[in-house]
Design goal:
alpha/beta; Rossmann fold; Dihydrodipicolinate Reductase, domain 2; 2 domains; seven-stranded parallel beta sheet; five-stranded mixed beta sheet; 6 helices; about 30% helix; elongated; binds nicotinamide-adenine-dinucleotide; binds the ligand O=C(O)C1=N[C@H](C(=O)O)CCC1; NAD(P)-bd_dom_sf; lysine biosynthesis; diaminopimelate biosynthesis; NAD
Length: about 250
Amino acid sequence: MVRVIMHGCNGKMGQVITRIIEEDPEVEIVAGVDAYMGITNTYPVVESIEKCDIPADVVIDFSNAAAVDGVLDYCAERRIPVVLCTTGLSETQLQHMEEAAKETAVLKSANMSLGINLLMKLLKDAAKVLGTAGFDVEIVEKHHNQKVDAPSGTALALADSVNEALEEACTYNFDRSKDRKKREKNEIGIAAVRGGTIVGEHEVIFAGTDEVIEFKHTAYSKAIFGKGAVEAAKFLAGKPAGRYDMSDVIQL
Ligand SMILES: NC(=O)c1ccc[n+]([C@@H]2O[C@H](COP(=O)([O-])OP(=O)(O)OC[C@H]3O[C@@H](n4cnc5c(N)ncnc54)[C@H](O)[C@@H]3O)[C@@H](O)[C@H]2O)c1
Ligand SMILES: O=C(O)C1=N[C@H](C(=O)O)CCC1
């Protein structure tokens, strides 16, 4: 049985994962952590991770960027593997994550779904052909009106896949409103839309002369992220220190 600490247990994703794990005999939530205590769970909940003294095999984190440093310190000190799903991390936090990965196993992924992880692979092939042929790359992402970070972690990860295939030649443009100039050839435009209950949409547009190719992923439910996170937790429990991602978990 894999023992999980659910960090952000009372949030939208924390509750999705609580329901998924209730149905899975291989995993158990032994403790939850959340700053908001207004939900009753079947497992004990504390308001900050430093107060959690229950032994566990892995931490799943879906919380808030401001909370991630505490999670990394906790997991590094106790050598507990961590599945890091929170988005909007700063460069300093990404560096902190690399340091923590010297002490424990860290799997970070901005998107736990099969579809997006396959898309990142497909984009590398597409970019090698289309980017090299001079197609412009633009990304549009859409999410619900409760999301705090923009652009989405997934949009950045998709851009990174394209950029990696183009040997890191691209810069990212998040806002053209103040520029009075044409688009640069080597930029990737990234635009964010927020509204209603949209679970998550990502479109990657390769626009060339007289032809356009679009890749689109639509999430219809948060369960796709939750299932991926639970599979990642099972995979990561017991693994040695180091950096992991969803391509280690999913056969692509
Ligand atoms: N990787 C993925 O596949 C994926 C999928 C969905 C969401 N996310 C990301 O996960 C994060 C959470 O998303 P959500 O929709 O569940 O958000 P949410 O706001 O519904 O839930 C976050 C929870 O974390 C709690 N929290 C905040 N700060 C805390 C702290 N310091 N200590 C303890 N608890 C704290 C909040 O009280 C809240 O209950 C976001 O960054 C989102 O972008 C990632
Ligand atoms: O609902 C969210 O918030 C999501 N965040 C992730 C991101 O920023 O990419 C993944 C999709 C859902």
